[in-house]
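Quick one before lunch.
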Amino acid sequence: MFGYAAFRGEQQAVIEHLAAGGDALVLMPTGGGKSLCYQIPALLRSGVGIVVSPLIALMQDQVKALCQLGVKAAFLNSSISADAAGKVQGRLLHGDLDLLYVAPERLMTDSFLNLLVRLQEDNAIALFAIDEAHCVSQWGHDFRPEYRALTVLHERFPNVPRIALTATADTPTRHEIVERLALEQARQFISSFDRANIRYRVTQKNNARHQLQAFLDAEHPNDAGIVYCLSRKKVDETAAWLREKGRDALPYHAGLDAATRSKNQSRFLREEGVVMVATVAFGMGIDKPNVRFVAHLDLPKSMEGYYQETGRAGRDSLPANAWLAYGLGDVVSMRQMIDNGEASEERKRLERQKLDALLGYCESTTCRHQTVLRYFGEEHPGNCGACDNCLEPVDTWDATQAAQMALSCVYRTGQRFGAGHLSDVLIGKLTDRVEKFNHHTLSTFGIGKELNAAQWSSVYRQLVASGILESDIEAYGGLKLTEAARPILRGEQSIWLRRDADPAIQKAGRKAQRAERTAQGNNRPREPFAGANDDPLWIALKAKRTELAREQGVPPYVIFHDSTLMDMLNKRPSTLDEMAQVSGVGQAKLARYGDEFLGLLNNFAS
Ligand code: ADP
Ligand code: ZN
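Model of the adenosine-5'-diphosphate complex:
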């Protein structure tokens, strides 16, 4: 039916447990393959599987995708007419459904519960699946009061197996799910939260827009992706700028009217290669599997935010990029945003801690997958081979002396100047400002000539990121010393900093790599998806998919996922039997699309 060669991770165990009538709690990261965990048991057991989901906007596409596979699926929520709902209920009672997706508020109505009672009399409920189960937690962002009432399922239908699923990993949320949904007896299936197909990368900002453009041109010339910015204004400007550069970029933020938002979102979902420039308002419930990159032009607020936002890339488990550019200015402005905010002191302290953890991640010199997972309490062996630090190990240097100079320059100038001015003083640059404040007469003037302005900026950024310096709101963000500066100034503690790659050198390096690849007659970077970008067969396969999707009014991935087209590209099937071996080509899709895609492939072969 699904056309896959094998189960992934815990899928088989979950499916067997549920098919045999057990309850389950499944914690799996985004893209881990949670849906199969309830879809297959619902097909195996007699009766209909009832799936509770708060993501109403997604139900229609989810159901369409299932129908394509030959699964008898339908949904009930506030978006459909009474007439259509009546039809679905008719099918339900006639045993004509394998899966029914239903919004929680609909499930809780007396009329629907009565329907369930009638079904249960014939033993016709296969299971209850509670998707996005973290919505029961009032501590999370997605709290849904109706989820609390779902215990009624257990009370009224004790013999029907239940499965709760979520991609939210933390222990308090897990305990709350168990308690609130009365899942004490349920077996827990906890997967690793590593998103191994996501390549994490953190770049030091010098000209963020151009860095973004270079990244997109080099690695994602035609791909769909998300660019996150902090402010609405920056979203609008960045989207306009990318459009000028020839990208199909659209803005999304809470300041746009609902019609524009929904139009842009639907273009992103239904068309190929759209870049969504957005604030964090965008993303919740976005189920597009082939988001190939997530770029951050501003810092996320926390590691949780970073993991969630980058996690929207690569749900189809093909390689995807998480790219973040950040600089000293970001650290200073994020800290100020917290300090100037309305929150209580306690809350601010928490926000500062969360930001510091993120900054620690940005500056870390070890495996990024390891750092991310450790934050969530999971061990990872490191050396993933898929993050910047593993692919191009970071150089560190003993910066004790430089840090002493940098710190004493802060002290001598009165702890109220920014990094730009401080580095002028260290280098011995006689600017108007330096003269105005008489800083050319200081003992620190010109003592740091060995480093250039970019290097001093790197030193200051890392000192701020590690909490040795902080920005002072009263002094308009000027830097001042913290307690942690003392042992360094006294020479009691040494400090090692990362050596930022010189942007000019980095650029030259990439050019050389490209030249080398061209010389070898191989213009493809490692990733299959990126390499396929300009392959005419790949383009033709995607065009065929788009054509079929348009005809049927569904998103392209509902026809075939990228991974399926990729497998076709690699396997080049020439018969229906061979086509059936392609991952993601089940019986129904083989019958529906097999000939059409074979025709296309054979044309290319001849
Ligand atoms: P989640 O809900 O956990 O985010 P999905 O259920 O949407 O994940 O699955 C993620 C992707 O992986 C989908 O494209 C799905 O078709 C694919 N997938 C799931 N299980 C398998 C499998 N066993 N083999 C191949 N692909 C799979
Ligand atoms: Zn790594």
